[in-house]
Prior knowledge:
The protein is α/β, with parallel strands linked by helices. It contains eight helices and twelve strands. It has a domain of 179 residues: Rossmann fold (3-Layer(aba) Sandwich). It is globular and about 60 Å long.
Amino acid sequence: MSLSIKDLRVSIDEKPILKGLSLEVGLGEIHAIMGPNGSGKSTLAYALAGHPKYEVEDGEVWLDDVSLLELTPDERAKMGLFLAFQYPTAIPGISMANFLRTAVNAIKGEKNGDGKNKGIAITEFRKLMTDKMSLLKMDKEFARRYLNEGFSGGEKKRAEILQMALLEPKYAILDETDSGLDIDALKIVSEGVNSLTGPNRSFIIITHYQRILNYIKPDFVHILYNGQIIESGGWELASRLEQEGYDNIIKENEMEAV
């Protein structure tokens, strides 16, 4: 079982962004994708999730032997794909609890005999949500607040991780979840992610900096530049980036390509 990306080419407004990206993510693995701004990191995340703005020009994406590109965004979510946004949207008037219960019912709810979703019982959901909130060190009052309205950067990211904890995806993409977090919020979010790791869940951690990888240790690190993965390695590659920056590695790969 795996998420398999082969020669993926994606454009935005007819401008090529991903230019032949290939990646294999086995179930239970943690992959970090690093790269300078504009390299295509978020484009990869949104293209996999099925955002209509991102036009897939060529390539294949297989999720457990099912062609992901032929599925709608909600079908991809039901298959076990999850995206934690870099900039979560605020929705006034909808409480966190109602939003999360609706999401859980949509993705995991069982069907009645007539094909309609019967949904998870309110008491069962409240217990499940409370347990996950305790894991993320979130106050119970948090569930009554409107979705992301007035949330700090750390609260928004914890809300994303809470959603992931409840939906229990097989393949979770974290799009620069570390951006805008102070060290305490980063530790809490990282602890939440680490508590969800295991043989039945994979993570793709998209980040510009190495600091989140001090708390979430990846099995593989990939450097994305100009729409392609130019180098892959273990955690030591992220450590090298921290010391040398992107320029040296980019220059080395450009020289090898000549």
